[in-house]
Amino acid sequence: MTSLTLTELAWTPPGHDHCVHRFQLRDASLLVGAGEFVGLIGPNGSGKTSLLRCAYRFSKPEHGDVQLEHQNVWKQSAKWCAQRIAVVLQEFPDAFGLRVDEVVAMGRTPHKGLFDNDTLHDQQLVRSALASVGMQDFEDHAFATLSGGEKQRVILARALAQQPQLLILDEPTNHLDPRYQLELLRLVKRLNIATLASIHDLNLAAAFCDRLYVINHGRIVASGTPHEVLTVALLRDVFAVEALIDTHPLSGYPRITWITQP
């Protein structure tokens, strides 16, 4: 089964000089095991998106290794990667007037030849993916007319239609109300495929992730189960906030209550 391994990644934004305070990824290593839902957390600007971009073959690392199925993704073709890795980003693509079903059908592109038409199997996968995210009644709607939350669910459906072996999510719940935040993460959890997700809401990360990696100033500073990682000391040191942490009375995962000063 598929696993993802990042080893000692280093990456610097293009156009930056070598001044002391520039942002860069440094010696970033992590593992996503087969069927594992791994969360990447950290403050804004800490390097979460940059690390994900290295993992899905968008930003080439200056140093280090990205292995999927024990293959270096940067030595494989873009099509090889697209057949195995699906990505859900914060930004929405330009749909150029496409309907919802046409956007989702784009997930089948890596598995088809240049002039291949959609097959009955492709159409069934599109319908199934839309049903999985509760958008089956929107097939013929224009993608551009949807709300932000609806668009996010369609983009997840496109990723599901891709039938990936690895799913990478960058802040997937940003545009969703609480109901669909929970439904989306439950769905991802049920997929039982290797998943790496940057998650802004630490309580959602605690509830759904098998393990967490914490990134700060471009470095991985902690990793482990949510109980091991989400401590008062870490939240103070990394996020510069005070919090109370107890155990959720129904589900047993860590629960964070922020301490605010009046």
TrEMBL record:
PROSITE patterns: ABC_TRANSPORTER_1, ABC_TRANSPORTER_2. Keywords: ATP-binding, Nucleotide-binding, Transport. InterPro entries: AAA+_ATPase, ABC_transporter-like_ATP-bd, ABC_transporter-like_CS, P-loop_NTPase. Residues 4-242 form the ABC transporter domain. SUPFAM superfamilies: P-loop containing nucleoside triphosphate hydrolases. The gene is fhuC_2. This is Iron complex transport system ATP-binding protein. Signal peptide: none annotated. The keyword Nucleotide-binding applies. Belongs to the ABC transporter superfamily. SMART domains: AAA. GO terms for molecular function: ATP binding; ATP hydrolysis activity. It comes from the Bacteria.
